Amino acid sequence: MTAVKFNIDTVDHAVQTPDVELPWAALGLKDNEFQRVVEILGRRPTAAELAMYSVMWSEHCSYKSSKVHLKQFGDKVTEGMLEHLLVGIGENAGVVDIGDGWAVTFKVESHNHPSFVEPYQGAATGVGGIVRDIISMGARPVAVMDPLRFGAIDHPDTPRLVHGIVAGIGGYGNSLGLPNIGGEVVFDSVYQGNPLVNALAVGVLRHEDIRLANASGVGNKVVLFGARTGGDGIGGASVLASESFDAGKPSKRPAVQVGDPFAEKVLIECCLELFKASVVEGIQDLGAAGISCATSELASNGDGGMHVELTSVLLRDPTLTPGQILMSESQERMMAVVTPSNVASFEAIMDKWNVEYSWLGEVTDTGRLIIEWDGEKIVDVDPRTVAHDGPVYNRPFHRPTWLDAVQADSFSADRPADLKAAVLKLMASPNMCSKDWVTNQYDRYVQGNTALAMPDDAGVVRVDEETGLGIALSTDANGRYSYLNPYEGARLALAEAYRNVATSGAKPMAVTDCLNFGSPEDPEVMWQFAESVRGLADACQELGVPVTGGNVSLYNQTGGVPIHPTPVVGVLGVFDDVARRTPSGWREDGQAIYLLGTTRNELDGSEWANLHGHLGGQPPAVDLGAEKTLAAILVNSSRDGMIDAAHDLSEGGLAAALSEAALRFGVGARIALDELCERDGVDPFTALFSESQARAVVAVPRSEEVRFNDMCTARNFPRLRIGVVDAENGALDVQGHFVLPLAELKEVHEATLPNHFA
Amino acid sequence: MTVETPLIGSSAAPIPDETLTGIRVGVISFPGSLDDRDAMRAVRIAGGTAVDLWHGDHDLKGVDAVVIPGGFSYGDYLRAGAISRFAPLMEQISAAASSGTLPVLGICNGFQVLTEAHLLPGSMIKNNHLHFLCRDQRLKVENTTTAWTSSYNAGDEIVVPLKNQDGQFVADERTLDELEGEGRVVFRYVGGNPNGSRRDIAGISNAAGNVVGLMPHPEHAVEAGFGPDSSAFGDVGLRGGVDGLDIFTSVLKKLVK
Amino acid sequence: MPRIVVDVMPKPEILDPQGKAIAGALPRLGLTGFAEVRQGKRFELTVEGEVTEAVLEQARTAAITLLSNPVIEDVTRVEVIEDVQ
Amino acid sequence: MPRIVVDVMPKPEILDPQGKAIAGALPRLGLTGFAEVRQGKRFELTVEGEVTEAVLEQARTAAITLLSNPVIEDVTRVEVIEDVQ
Ligand SMILES: Nc1ncnc2c1ncn2[C@@H]1O[C@H](COP(=O)(O)OP(=O)(O)O)[C@@H](O)[C@H]1O
Ligand SMILES: [Mg+2]
Fold this sequence. Notes:
The complex is a heterotetramer, with one copy of chain A (758 residues), one copy of chain B (257 residues) and two copies of chain C (85 residues). Chain A has 758 residues and is α+β, with helices and mostly antiparallel strands.
């Protein structure tokens, strides 16, 4: 193919024309940042170089505001935490050793803004992007999760977002054959103009299959494969329509990317075949910043140099300029490094899967990333300066002035007399209602390894069919807790995800996080961010679970009002045998129901307070020591067959936990609160609605009660027999207070989402 | 009644049967097939030998039966199954299937491929509620003379997962009457029609009974611990439903004879 | 480059769930002038070079073999269109 | 009854996975005359009574608000068609 002839801004041309006005500001670079580029290069950048630096030095790609804080995830790890870590932060996704030669890679990422603009495609391509991260580690993706946040349920714009985003997550994930095993759906008006669409993917691989994003081996070939490159995702960069900056003709570039899940499914299978045949040395997915990112990262992580002919890129739109090709975020593309001797095998696999590819160039040891356009040099940079030496900001931050007043405003509304009505109201509320309307649009069966999924506490997937070795995953965040106290809020998010995983019976092992915040240029938001990272890093250290990777999403605000700080935390746990996983509902008549943990008067930030429009005070106290013991009890009793059901207490407290455990299999229970109220010094309402942490309810077979009690005693952990499973009465009978027929509870619980969206 | 903590795989552990192992069931993969490995697992759990077939090949590898699995072949972009129908291997399958000799089961997308290939009448359109729907679905087995249902008793009900977006079975009234009259409605939805399918039809067969298409997924109800939470044959453990397994044992047993 | 357009509509006797959903939504937007809505597909096939009778014939074949399913759909048009929008 | 037809096509610069899949399948059927395929939608709105300018205006409104997604699609036609097939 002959290249379209542009008035190309070559390196030579840049040297000769130092004074050309460059649109760096329109591309998002700050004055000082542009000056640095000039300093690094010793001349003005070419148009193509400017394109690369501007996208790679953006907040999204360079983490320039968050880097100084994120360092803590590395600084605060102990030897012990690294024990199972095969690949840590910095690669496309972290890799965790789960034993028997198996490893797991997982990561959560945001696609918030695109999903507001075009909900279906935004959410769909969010799934697509995170799945490619997982493939590029050498893994087969095995499941996805989708923590979501929307504005108020009754806002006129909410149905557009809910319908589009849920259909987009499902449309892409279902088409890839990835079971969706969990997530979150939260409604809060702070997310009105900024819905949060976070997507998590997890993959499985053998230790020897780990692939890294580096270009090593001088003379090895660089290949781009998958979808063709179009003008996707470079709408903001239309100033690059003319590479010589003299013609101001408007360019029509799509602001949104359209996903092609079929192409990605084929890409998955084709990559797995490449890995199996050992024909790729290094591999990188193309996400944000497209070829700019892939070439500069591959080169700087490897032998340091790369030589690329850009006209070799297969295009969907032949009018794209070199800068646009470098910036394009077209989906479903991958870049790989292949030794010359493997070229033929590589091509055979591409042909089998009918995947297009083009050889772009080769690895060098010059320390330079050279990109040519039809033989003319348009980029000549040290790839490190593009990929790793971006600006780093120590942005000013300070504690919000309003926080004292908010924290002083504790929830004090009257305790309702009618507890039955209160439970019904809670369980019908937008955040506590059944999420079936959403999750029934997701395939949870495909691949045949799902051992637990919605609505249980964690998603559980078998990894090894022979041994039953498997993993559990949960994602959590509570924006209200984080608003009240970002340090504790982040710790609470980790505590809940950790607890959910342990409740399912898995041993928590590692963490991924997606930090969703407002503008870092607002010192109060920056403080929330700094506190959250500090809290999460501290809590990870205390619980002994390392952060293996994640994502930062800033500027989530509309009209100067930021979202609640929302650090979404995903925890990965491991099972020796998923046969031992614990469901969240009870089924066997006569089994004893125990409450583990202590209940305090902690209603600030709770769902109950939220239902009354109140947000003030301090979130529930965090006791990570207690969380650790609770987790150990849950994991051991699952392994030793001491419990048949377990459900953690989180939003909505005991009332929600009992309701959900009963609704899970439609089996009721008789519950007595007296002893609990007496022991913990709380009234029945508080017993039911407080959101004290480190608690769970479990169902213990009669034959196991002694053993179970002994174990709790040995660990000195508070537990109380609060009731018994009653398979006959079809009700949640809280003795002395109310009898709530499950049919009635189920009806209101399940009606909320269909009423708004069906 | 006391039930132990359910152990995955306990009730589905195949009893090795040498005669069944000799039966080779091919599972065809198209680009975009998703439940192909699951269908192969189901064949193995039922005791047979699963053989993977590639859509682009021209060789049926001497298989005794074929499963066309679920998924979104070619993205289902044009119409579900429309492009796959023209795959090279489909020619062999069509020929053998229409001669009445080769047992062929199309599950979900596979069913759609069979209708597009005119091996089965009718077609599938978008669900009446327009959403993808994943749920555990109760079905009635109405014809137990087909190659794929002989291990059931007429009138048996089963619970298997359903998951699709274009699952609404449609055909003109004459065709529907014909299907009913000839007993070719093999599976019918009970306990609620999930997608608007005419006459609650979930699965049908050709006149010879060797070709069966079914929208829900029996291959996801074959292994205790990974199936639906319920069964029509009584209480089961957590995700213990294996009601779909007999679809696969039916064909193996039939072929042994 | 010249294009051939192929229109495919659901057969009148086949229920069209998408058309029905649209018909239900229109009045909620205050658009009450319509009795029924049907949603079909429109394909544009770009022809490399001239549109000969042979190419048109190919388009007709594509229309009835691949682009439509005769059980549920009718091909309502196969036609060359001008290259203007 | 008279009908108004609304054609909606994916914007030219937007990826059309459906068209791409069809374009890939045509040559396998021996139909090699086409360089590109785009798949769009065709809506037929049946009008109760006469097609007045007001009704046409309603159709235009429907086309840009409900029937198309302006971020990724263009309305390429809103027109009355004869009631013949
Ligand atoms: N968007 C979603 N996608 C998938 N699963 C979801 C989604 N939202 C909620 N769920 C699932 O519904 C169940 C209940 O959610 P939630 O009450 O938030 O769980 P928990 O409080 O245990 O974290 C969980 O199994 C959760 O994974
Ligand atoms: Mg939970």
